[in-house]
Specification:
Number of helices: 11
Bound molecules: adenosine-5'-diphosphate, uridine-5'-diphosphate, magnesium ion
Strand content: 5-15%
Shape: globular
Helix content: 40-55%
Distance between the termini: 18 Å
Radius of gyration: 19 Å
CATH superfamily: P-loop containing nucleotide triphosphate hydrolases
CATH class: Alpha Beta
Number of domains: 1
Strand order of the largest sheet: 2-3-1-4-5
Length: 245
C-alpha cells in the first residue's frame, strides 16, 4: 500500500507552498491511488468536501463526530457557525437568531462567508460540511464563492416521527428544539432541501443512508463510503511525512 503511494511521490516535487496548490498535487496522488475503484475523483486544486444532509434530528452531527474520528475530516457545522456568530455579538447576530427561532434559512451570503472563513483558517484539506446546503440558493452560492463542488454528499434519511422524537430529547438548550419550530423546519426541509438532494443524486454524488438504528449501526453504513480512501485520508493530508517530500 505504502509503496504504491510512494511511487507517485514525485508528483509533489513542484508543489508550491500555498494551501490549494499543495492540494492539487495531493489530489494527483489521490487519482492515481483510487483509479481502479469507484471513488469519486476530486477536482484538482480543491479540498475534499463532503456535504452532510438530512432533516433536523436525523443524526448528521452525531455521525460527523464518528467520521472525524475514523477518517480525520474537519467538521464544519453550518448551524454551529451561525450559533457562534450569535454568541459573538456580531452585527448579524439578532437576524440569525430570529431566523433560527422561526426555523427559516439564514441568507446564503452570511452562511457561505462563515463556512469559507472556517475552511480557509484550517490547515486540513478534507471537510465535512454539516447541515449545508439547505436550499438550491445555498448550493449555488457555495459553488460560486468557494469555487468547488462536493466530492461526496451524504443524506441521512429518517422518518419525521423519529426526527421529532430525537430533537425533542436533544437537550442542548437550543432555541429551535421545540415542537413549533420543528414543524416549520420540517416544512422548509421538504420544500427546499429535496431539490438539493435530487440535484446531487442526478450527479451521482449522493449516498442515501437509512438513519434509523443505533448510532453504531448507522456508522457501519457510512464507513464503506470512506473506507477505500482511508490511507490517503488519514496519512497524506495535507502532506504526509513518509512519502510526500
Ligand atoms: N441513531 C440514533 N438513534 C437515536 N438517537 C440518536 C441517533 N443519532 C443521534 N441521536 C440523537 O438525536 C439527537 C439529534 O442528533 P444530531 O446528531 O444532533 O442530529 P442533527 O445534527 O441531524 O440534527 C441527539 O440528541 C443525538 O444524540
Ligand atoms: O446552512 C444553514 C445551516 C443552518 N441554518 C439555520 O440553523 C438552524 C439549525 O441548523 P443545524 O444544522 O444546527 O440543525 P440540525 O439540522 O443539526 O438540527 C436551521 O434550522 C436554520 O435555521 C441555516 O439557516 N443555514
Ligand atoms: Mg446538527
Amino acid at each position: 500500500m505504502w509503496r504504491r503511494v510512494a511511487s507517485v511521490s514525485h508528483l509533489f516535487s513542484h508543489s508550491k507552498s500555498t494551501k490549494f496548490n499543495q492540494g492539487a498535487s495531493t489530489f494527483k496522488i489521490w487519482e492515481t491511488f483510487t483509479s481502479e475503484s469507484e471513488i469519486p475523483t476530486p477536482s484538482k486544486g480543491s479540498p475534499f468536501i463532503t456535504f452532510v444532509l438530512g432533516g433536523p434530528g436525523s443524526g448528521k452531527g452525531t455521525q460527523c463526530a464518528k467520521i472525524v474520528e475514523a477518517f480525520g475530516f474537519t467538521h464544519v457545522s453550518a448551524g454551529d457557525l451561525l450559533r457562534r456568530e450569535i454568541a459573538s455579538g456580531s452585527a448579524y447576530g439578532s437576524v440569525i437568531l430570529s431566523t433560527i427561532r422561526e426555523g427559516k434559512i439564514v441568507p446564503s451570503q452570511v452562511t457561505v462567508e462563515l463556512i469559507q472563513k472556517e475552511m480557509e483558517s484550517n490547515d486540513n484539506y478534507k471537510f465535512l460540511i454539516d447541515g449545508f446546503p439547505r436550499s438550491e440558493e445555498n448550493r449555488k452560492a457555495f459553488e460560486q464563492t468557494i469555487g468547488a463542488e462536493p466530492d461526496v454528499v451524504l443524506f441521512f434519511d429518517c422518518p419525521e416521527q423519529e426526527m421529532v422524537k430525537r430533537v425533542l430529547n436533544r437537550n442542548q438548550g437550543r432555541v429551535d428544539d421545540n415542537i413549533d419550530t420543528i414543524k416549520k423546519r420540517l416544512e422548509i426541509f421538504d420544500e427546499l432541501n429535496w431539490p438539493v438532494i435530487n440535484y446531487y443524486s442526478q450527479r451521482g454524488k449522493l449516498h442515501k443512508i437509512n438513519a434509523v438504528g443505533t448510532v453504531d449501526e448507522i456508522f457501519e453504513k457510512v464507513r464503506p463510503i470512506f473506507a477505500p480512501l482511508r490511507y490517503i485520508l488519514l496519512f497524506c493530508y495535507p502532506v504526509c511525512s513518509i512519502c510526500c517530500h
